[in-house]
Amino acid sequence: MGNAAAGPFDDRGSRPHVEGDFAAEEVALANRNPGMPLEALRYEVTPVGLHYLLSHFDIPDLDAGTWRLQVGGRVERPLSIALDDLKRLPARTLRVTMECAGNGRGRMRPRYPSMPWMNEAVGTAEWTGTPLARVLEQAGPLGDAVEVAFLGADRGFDRGVEHDYGRSLALAHATTEDVLLAWAMNGAPLLPQHGYPCRLLVPGWYGMASVKWLARIEVLDRAFDGFQQAVGYHYRRHAGDPGVPVTTQRVRSLMVPPGMPDWYTRERCLDAGPVVLHGRAWAGGGVDVTRVEVGIDGQWHDAQVSEAGRHRYAWRAWRFRWQAQPGRHRLQCRAHAADGSVQPLEAEWNTAGMGNHSVQTVDVTVRAP
Amino acid sequence: MGNAAAGPFDDRGSRPHVEGDFAAEEVALANRNPGMPLEALRYEVTPVGLHYLLSHFDIPDLDAGTWRLQVGGRVERPLSIALDDLKRLPARTLRVTMECAGNGRGRMRPRYPSMPWMNEAVGTAEWTGTPLARVLEQAGPLGDAVEVAFLGADRGFDRGVEHDYGRSLALAHATTEDVLLAWAMNGAPLLPQHGYPCRLLVPGWYGMASVKWLARIEVLDRAFDGFQQAVGYHYRRHAGDPGVPVTTQRVRSLMVPPGMPDWYTRERCLDAGPVVLHGRAWAGGGVDVTRVEVGIDGQWHDAQVSEAGRHRYAWRAWRFRWQAQPGRHRLQCRAHAADGSVQPLEAEWNTAGMGNHSVQTVDVTVRAP
To answer: Which of B22, B157, B193 lies nearest to residue A50, judging by beta carbons?
Structure first.
């Protein structure tokens, strides 16, 4: 880790918060980390190339033929597994809505300088892979094992600390049937940018848990102290706050912006008359979305939430019929989850701009027919 | 066009130029218009989802089964062509490096507020389609035909003007064998974001010419006055300058940034010793790249330019062996084309930030072994 001088919860080297305009570094990150254009909410499964992507370092150049997954640490039998061996084990396919923990960071005030997501860091895919549990069974965790760490082949620096991208899960979580070693997305081999040839998939958690370009699995008798686990990805209220680890996705809904956009401002214009507002809603950790409301100029109305094709970890479609009258209108949507959580109107501020699931607002101009 | 009040070369409503930090509107455009991460220069053909994308308006929701291409205007036989009919005509496949005319806009000073590309608005694909010439032959342009206009299914506003995205070509250009009505990319049907079910492909020109989601072709006896042809996409030195239309790509080279990045700044770090610097170079209009130079701290050296698998409209690989010494170094690359053109060290400024093919600069820190 090369991080010996820093305590595990230290966030030294954090960049100062900013307001207003965006730095060239933020724009450069946005140029290489695409969001999902919100009109793509129309697709139940996001088409290839429209799913959001966040790569901390460079996309590694890996060869599936020579790739091996190393499994070591506190296990009875260290393993070195080829992709073909992994594929010979029983596979599962899960439809999963994945979202970046930093989604909405660009809408927080003040803002932490990092990838400046507005609303678009989301996508849904059909992931196929081998349950991690099968591989852990083969390796045989020792009695003192408590965590499992996942290291990627991508390496770089964050706040001065050089490291392989890495994250961990509690052993009890890692051995559930829904955590996959995924080697296919939407029925095809993983694309380089999605973790080829094999990545971890942790349904219901923010995307940082689903380590791409998986290289090593380490079974640990202690908490993993990797940078992205111990320093990054915490909800902290102020510098020095030990904070709360970022885990499952917060309940959220998004709307396809109706009408036509202006190229630059993305302001919307539509014709008066009946309009079907629609979008999708999801909650983390396999919790169900129970209700979606649509706000029209601050008045909230229940939307219809689809019962079609339910998947535990995937978003649900919603729709609302609106009679659009000429003038300026403010459209919003907010979802409720079975655990009682609901989207806030304003972001719950935290130092790194994590988990901003505050409601999306779309301002539209309706013109007379 | 709804643009009657404006002369064809008027750029009224242009946004004021800016310097320094970036507006939220620019960041929102970057969130929905992805660039190609430069490490993907390693691929001769850009993997699906890593090719750059620029959509002026929303991605339309089109159905290949009901889609028809309308061909009208100054023709003997107006046509309405189904996709299957188009696919029954003889097809061609071309490997084409496509680039956005706005690539590099974010590096100009002062800067026009629009999509803030740095270097990444590029990609190479194998496009398959029917030569446009076959369809124009069927329609039979009348004797007074001089231009062919291409209208997309995407509609919105730019500087107050509502329009379908549209561009034109001279009839003599439109009837060459290399201009395609493309319906496949890398051997698969077009993805929604790349123009499904059918787009124009104009090899050697900047991407704005290759109209996506093609809906209508109009043969004209005059110059097309559509907004994106008459107002947008010109090289202008000042407001009121009639300007020069943006057409073919300018000669350009890019380098895979060597070593490891810092997450936020993307500054690079690598170990001292031999390093192979590599990248790709291309020129527009089917012109050949004749030479690529690599700059090391301002000293220029010839790179090796690959002769492998030459394609008239696709980039060529180059490589240069560098003995990296500890310290800070500035790496650059510049390409020369057969027409005598060469990349400038500084951008040639124009009002809309078009065609900035100035050399890429990568600053690296080399550490002792």
So the answer is: B193
